[in-house]
Amino acid sequence: MRLRTRKASHRPVAPELAKCAQCGAAVRPHRVCPACGYYKGRQVVSVAVA
Ligand SMILES: [Zn+2]
């Protein structure tokens, strides 16, 4: 029965999420926050504010 071993490689990726220190949005670690553009306390990407 090979199905079990095949499925083992299909397991979902671990939900790696951190909280943005600036806006509190769920962001991925070591990534710029997509919501506010902040990373490590400073804004590195300008986000268009509506
Ligand atoms: Zn943010």
Task: Quickly list its features.
50 residues; alpha+beta; two-stranded antiparallel sheet; 16% strand; binds zinc ion
Counting H and I runs of at least 4 residues, what is the number of helices? 1
Bound molecules: zinc ion
What is Rg?
A: 17 Å
The stretches of 5 or more residues where confidence is low (pLDDT under 50) are none
Helix content: 10-25%
Oligomer: single chain
Which of globular, elongated, flat, extended, rod-shaped describes the shape?
rod-shaped
Give the termini separation.
Answer: 55 Å
Helices and strands: which structural class? alpha+beta
Arithmetic mean pLDDT: 82
**Major beta-sheet overview:** 2 strands, antiparallel
Q: Strand order within the widest sheet? A: 1-2
* Number of domains as seen in the coordinates: 1
Number of strands: 4
Q: Proportion of β residues?
A: 15-25%
Following the backbone from N to C, one meets helices and strands in this order, namely: HEEEE
